[in-house]
Amino acid sequence: MTLQIETIPCLSDNYAYLAHDPDSGETAVVDVPEAAPILDALAKKGWTATHVLITHHHADHVQGLSELLAQHNAQVVGHAADAKRLPPLDLALNDGDTLQIGRETGHVIDVSGHTIGHIAFHFPQSKVAFTADSLMALGCGRVFEGTMPQMWDSLCKLGALPPDTTICSGHEYTAANARFALTIDPDNPELISRAEAVDAAREKGHPTVPTRLSEELATNPFLRAADPGIQAHLGMTGAAPAQVFAEIRRRKDNF
């Protein structure tokens, strides 16, 4: 049986996730922007948090941890390379390492760029990846600590996952990302349709995440830096995709 995924809105525009294995009863919490909504979701489900998977050190992904741990004796998992900036880790993992949630094996992917030491967690059996502020719905995280080529490499790793992978990202930025995407890829009918659907969902107060990787590959300009149409629109025909990505990211930073 695959993991049961619950999406939990936190703060003003963050998301945490629960990944529950119904056979063992084990439940992973992915990032802890704030404790209260996560504790409420766990209580309503009757689940006990057994693991906390931390994607990166930013406060809006870890600041609720101590309050959560006061009620749930969970194992805290994060990137060994960034342990000095993370809360105390019970399990420090590196790129390529694995962890178990019940019977399911999760794979750690270093997706540095937004921060150095940002990781994603991929559970292939359940076809889900928790990407936080690396690959996002119609976007990607701002490159704060890494380099543009490093971020492009990280996105390529995620873009190479199976297309039916569910992408669980860290923020409700999709409507703004859609407005920007249309300035980069204005003639993409799938993007136009998706932008309309995103606006409709937000008008009703519905989350626009998680998404499918196939949808991101078709519409997310940050994954499409090799697309001839996008390159032509930017006046960068034939340029290396990493250079095109950097130009798209710079434009988004100033959008």
Q: Any overview of this molecule?
A:
This protein is α/β, with parallel strands linked by helices and 255 residues long. It is built from nine helices and 14 strands. The chain has helices at residues 35-45, 59-62, 65-69, 148-159, 174-184, 189-203, 213-219, 228-233, 241-253; strands at 4-10, 14-20, 27-30, 51-53, 75-79, 91-93, 98-101, 104-110, 119-123, 128-132, 135-136, 139-140, 166-169, 211-212. The strands form three sheets. A six-stranded mixed beta sheet has the order 1-2-3-4-5-6, covered by helices on one side. Strands 7-8-9-10-13-14 form a six-stranded mixed beta sheet. Strands 11-12 form a two-stranded antiparallel sheet. Helix 4 crosses helix 9 (241-253) and helix 5 runs antiparallel to helix 6 (189-203). The longest helix is centred in the C-terminal third of the chain and has 15 residues, at 189-203. It is globular. The termini are far apart. The model has no long low-confidence stretch (mean pLDDT 97).
